[in-house]
Amino acid sequence: MKALAWHGKRDVRVDTVPDPTIELPTDAIIKVTSSGLCGSDLHLYEVLGPFLDAGDILGHEPMGIVEDVGAEVTHIKAGDRVVIPFNISCGQCFMCKDKHLMSQCETTQVHEYGSGAAFLGYTKLYGQVAGGQAEYLRVPQAHFGPIKVPEGPSDDRFLFLSDVLPTAWQAVQYTDTPGQGTIAVIGLGPIGLMSARIAKHLGNRVIGIDLVPDRVARARRDGIEVFDLNDVDDVIAAVREVTGGRGPDAVIDAVGMEAHGSTGAKVAQTAAGLLPDVLARKVFTEAGIDRMEVINMATELVMRGGTISLSGVYGGAASPMNLLRLFDKQVKIRMGQANVKRWVDDIMPLLEGTADPLGVDDFASHHVPLTEAPGAYKAFQDKTDDTFKVVFRPHG
Ligand SMILES: NC(=O)c1ccc[n+]([C@@H]2O[C@H](COP(=O)([O-])OP(=O)(O)OC[C@H]3O[C@@H](n4cnc5c(N)ncnc54)[C@H](O)[C@@H]3O)[C@@H](O)[C@H]2O)c1
Ligand SMILES: [Zn+2]
Ligand SMILES: [Zn+2]
Questions:
Q1: Which strands, in side-by-side order, build the sheet including 332-335?
Q2: Cβ proximity of 107 and 93 under 8 Å
């Protein structure tokens, strides 16, 4: 089959590889009909190379048709239409069942790196499992993970259940505002924009912040109050001015470790990328490589006693946070990978019927065959051609 594989920094290629097969009774094989490209994939493309091997298949936002299932997979069968969560979780352990933290599944935790649950297509840190930007995918823990979805609407109606929707839903839930608060969202990529839509849908006032013209324009079209960093000199002061001098109740950081504007950490990330992998891995896991621009902005922006909800991914072990300000302002911080299955029942009613209140049907900006994936990665990273959310169609 054809699959999109990592070969080095900013080097992904469509390779021909063996078709996946059922290896365990809890596996399923799906024919991938749609597969998303995510901001998290850009971290692999740019800075997380030390944790990848050439040939690793990327992608963690797939959906498709079940081809085959192992003996212990009973809730889906060949021919069913399914969305695959990016978390690989068992549904039965203490973390999955009692805590509803599928991203911490004790069956799939990656002990070698002290990481939480494995996830599709995402480095040695998360189990080095072959991903879903491919014609076919082996789905581990398929007795629990796959979400059966109805026939009828196009793939895009359900595809974002794999990651964007539960990630954005969790980002909003973790702000702890009951629906009448003000939430600022920093970063208006797919995760930030969907978080803004959900926060608004639940009744909050939403303020967005970004600097890419197309992303600013999209959010404005959704009726979100946007501060464009190209137009405002002091965004903290500007947001305080429209929030009674106190700042928003909560701030969602939907940017993460590769924020624009942080030169020190960019040097550290670039330097780590030049080291042999074994040394570079040490720099990542023992030192600070994150660009702290956005979390520092969130710290300043949030109301005293408010909440910062981090959905943007951070990866350094010693990244300097402003504890003085965080402590003084009595800020609460919540974060983590989305616990996909935890939120599916809450989100599904919003995907049924024709109303489409979260605007998933036209959320994707580009649908492309897998053969065009290398160019799509570049355009998504460079933010050219108004590339916002790319969906690969491996079978056309
Ligand atoms: N927690 C999870 O489970 C989870 C799941 C999916 C994605 N993520 C993470 O969420 C983040 C966003 O993902 P995405 O797909 O939306 O990616 P993206 O790269 O398309 O979006 C990031 C946005 O942040 C903006 N930005 C960059 N620097 C900024 C700054 N200094 N101030 C304001 N805006 C800035 C960019 O212009 C861009 O629009 C990534 O870090 C990704 O890894 C986390
Ligand atoms: Zn993703
Ligand atoms: Zn589990």
A1: 225-228, 205-210, 182-186, 250-253, 307-310, 332-335
A2: yes
| pLDDT surpassing 80 at residue 375 | yes
The residue whose CA has the least distance to atom 36 of ligand 1 is: 187
pLDDT band at 292 (very low <50, low <70, confident <90, very high): confident
Residue 313: the pLDDT is 82
The answer to whether residues 107 and 174 belong to one domain is no
Spatial separation of the C-alpha atoms in residues 241 and 237, rounded to whole Å: 6
Residue 162 to residue 82: CA distance in whole angstroms? 10
Question: Does ligand 1 lie within 6 Å of residue 211's CB atom?
Answer: yes
Q: Which domain holds residue 42?
A: 2-163+339-392
Residue 170 Cβ contacting ligand 1 at under 6 Å: no
| pLDDT at site 321 | 84
Q: Whose CA is nearest to atom 8 of ligand 1?
A: 312
Could you give the number of structural domains in the chain?
2
Could you give the count of Cα atoms lying within 13 Å of 294 in the half-sphere of its Cβ? 30
Residue 280 is predicted with a pLDDT of 59
User: Rounded to an integer, what distance in angstroms lies between the CA atom of residue 389 and that of residue 37?
Assistant: 7
Stretch 21-26: mean pLDDT, rounded? 98
pLDDT of residue 259: 62
Span from the CA of 246 to the centroid of ligand 1 (angstroms)? 25
